[in-house]
Amino acid sequence: MGCILSFDVGTTGLKTIVISQEGRILKHCNIEYGIVQEQEGFAEQDPAVWWDAAVKSMRFVLTGEIRKEIRAIGVSGQFQSLVMLDQNFNPLRKAILWCDHRGEEMLPEITNNVGGENLFSITANPALSGSSVSFLLWVKKYEPHIYEQCRHIMLPHEYIRFRLTGECVTDVTSASSMQLLNVPERSWSRELFRKLNLDDKITGPLLECGEIAGRTTARARQETGIPQGIPVIAGGGDSVVSAVGTGVIREGSCFTSIGTSGIICTNTDRIRTDRKGRVNTYCSAVPGKWAVITCSITSGFALKWMKENFCGIEMEAARNNHTDVYDEMNREASQIAAGSEGLLFLPYLMGDRTPHLNPDAKGVFLGASSRHTRSHFIRSVMEGAAYSLMDGISVLRELDIVLDDYVLCGGGAKGNLWRGIIADIYGHAVSTVQNDSGAAMGAAVLAAYGCGLYTTLEEAAGHMVKRNEANGFNQKNHETYMRYWDVYRDAYVRLEDIFQKLKEIND
């Protein structure tokens, strides 16, 4: 039969799947864990928590027959989060997570020492607060005794890969998120290490995401039950690997992930960058390509916020009818025409990343009148989140990226109404995948290709990733939405000074 074991080391939990080479999920397991926040702005996790979750999940999914059929292991996980190991490969401290804010302090030092233009030309991005290098410099400044003992750095999924194989290697997607990689050349930048006064021996050899990083060891077999000698594929960071898991491989195809945030990712044949810093450009999980990623910070979270604060009636109806509260909200919102009769929502509940790079932006309802009901407000929140995704699409188009294939995934893609709204705003049909396992699925596809079950990555994705019938779009609705989108964008420009004044008052 032949099957793949795959991990996604997420921020709040570890997802494990066993999938056949035809793309059928045979076994799955999700184990949740928490974030340690010792003070405001900090976010950490003990690497032992990830390994414990991996061990438990393997002991659960590796039943008799499945264990015999495992052909390869795929890994993926959160970008940017920093793991530091000593000479004996033991973690020196808790990992600093991508959502930790302490790296912001180090950005001027990075920019000044390297030079803004030079940094951009090397890493394809401006200095990023959530990058591994910003965390590394923070540790060097405030925990020098830790830094002095550091001999290896890696990301969370790479730690799982190391525990399985004993090999310290880095995939190019992870390295690009560290901001220590020469992204155009896909090689470590010794210039960056030198100008930032960092030890360049703490990084390992670089691999493309579909290459074999090592094989499971006798120790891993003892701890987890996985057979010894199974090839472990390099894998990569969650956003770019998720693209592979939705079949987004060629240039022109993109996926939109609607989770807490809204992520759009596409692969390009040549490197594309944005001098305004509205996108992140990394090495793609597809060998020889680059990934361009946009981020709307508040996407699915906006609807969750609406539910928890204003939809008590719908929550009660869901309890009484034994339905999902979001189904109740969709039912109400579907009764309202496209555009919510002029009610607009700016979804900046946690600031904005793409395209405004403004952490102080705020959520706004605009155009409310006495005729607007709760149903209008629910729909306007869904539309506002979709407008913010359209902002990301427009930035990609500005970068001369021509898109002709749109795939939706994540929790927000499950509802027909929201899918339809997004299709109408994009002005293009959108697809979903039958097996929406995100980065775990992408890592499995990479593993199937890397171990030789398929001769090309395209072939692996073609066999393993199954799409549902596409949602078409309504041209009349699209025209309506484009008029409102113009107002939406203008509203942000007019309110930007107001957001700053609110910040000053609240500070």
What's the layout of helices and strands?
Blueprint: E1 3-9, E2 13-20, E3 25-32, E4 44-45, H1 47-61, H2 64-69, E5 70-77, E6 83-85, E7 95-96, H3 107-114, H4 116-123, H5 132-142, H6 144-149, E8 152-154, H7 156-165, E9 170-171, H8 172-178, E10 181-182, E11 187-188, H9 190-195, E12 206-207, E13 212-215, H10 218-224, E14 231-233, E15 236-237, H11 238-245, E16 253-258, E17 262-268, E18 280-283, E19 290-296, H12 300-310, H13 312-321, H14 325-333, E20 344-347, E21 363-366, H15 374-398, E22 405-409, H16 416-426, E23 431-432, H17 438-450, H18 457-464, H19 475-506
Parallel strand pairs: 1-5, 5-15, 9-12, 16-22, 22-23
Antiparallel strand pairs: 1-2, 2-3, 4-7, 6-8, 10-11, 13-14, 16-17, 17-19, 18-19, 20-21
Summarize the structure.
The protein has 507 residues and is an alpha/beta fold. Helix content is 42%, strand content 19%. The protein folds into two domains: 237 residues, Nucleotidyltransferase, domain 5; 128 residues, Nucleotidyltransferase, domain 5 (2-Layer Sandwich), CATH 3.30.420.40.
Unreliable sequence segments: none
- Mean pLDDT metric: 93
Question: Any idea what the radius of gyration is?
Answer: 23 Å
Shape: globular
Structural class: alpha/beta
Report the sheet with the most strands, covering strand number, pairing sense and barrel closure: 6 strands, mixed
Strand content: 15-25%
Overall domain count: 2
Major sheet: arrangement of strands: 18-19-17-16-22-23
Distance between the termini: 61 Å
CATH architecture of the largest domain: 2-Layer Sandwich
CATH domain topology of the largest domain = Nucleotidyltransferase, domain 5
Give the full name of the CATH homologous superfamily of the largest domain.
ATPase, nucleotide binding domain
Share of residues in helices:
40-55%
CATH class of the largest domain: Alpha Beta
Helical run tally = 19
